[in-house]
Amino acid sequence: xxxxxxxxxxxxxxxxxxxxxxxxxxxxxxxxxxxxxxxxxxxxxxxxxxxxxxxxxxxxxxxxxxxxxxxxxxxxxxxxxxxxxxxxxxxxxxxxxxxxxxxxxxxxxxxxxxxxxxxxxxxxxxxxxxxxxxxxxxxxxxxxxxxxxxxxxxxxxxxxxxxxxxxxxxxxxxxxxxxxxxxxxxxxxxxxxxxxxxxxxxxxxxxxxxxxxxxxxxxxxxxxxxxxxxxxxxxxxxxxxxxxxxxxxxxx
Length: 252
Prior knowledge:
Blueprint: E1 7-11, H1 16-27, E2 32-36, E3 46-48, H2 54-68, E4 71-76, E5 81-83, H3 91-112, E6 116-125, H4 138-158, E7 164-170, E8 173-174, H5 179-182, H6 187-192, E9 201-202, H7 203-214, E10 225-228, E11 247-249
Parallel strand pairs: 1-2, 1-4, 2-3, 4-6, 6-7, 7-10, 8-9
Antiparallel strand pairs: 5-11
Helix pairs in contact: 1-7, 2-3, 3-4
């Protein structure tokens, strides 16, 4: 697919959906830079950054933009979640989940927008859990919903500069960090009962849509929250708390 000038920066691009996005954008001819808390040794153009650190984010984004001359696309794929009952979420857990999923997206957006060329794009990897909250994911659902609201506001404010801002809402995706959850007895089967298309997504199912939104073919799309979930959001989400211990889930 045709794309604008400048590099593509994938934040959270060292693994999971983010890595698939970096690969898809590279396959479309983008020069791709990856920013991640845990760098990808296999990717040459990689920077280490904690999205919660505003100054570090700005310095890292500036470095990538200077190296490539400009940014044509940014993908925010950093994320973390904990499955914890609402009344058991402590302040540290709340701060972590909201900082990575919401504040981190703001930090990257604010740092990257001045470097995005006209026709460029910013795509947030959100979740279907933003619109269909799940028991045990109240902080995650709230943060993702807030991040999508941020994207819609950004679409309004940055549209005059020709910058598009959209959100992609995956359902359940098979990634290395989701493997433990999906391997729990009965979990995969429970999800499959809720997915009309009848399978768990691969990272590439999400990345192909992200690459489209970054391309000139999507040049008239902005302010959209697009479910990419095999129809999962049409049905009730499987229960995560019933008999389950609170777990950690880092993904996006």
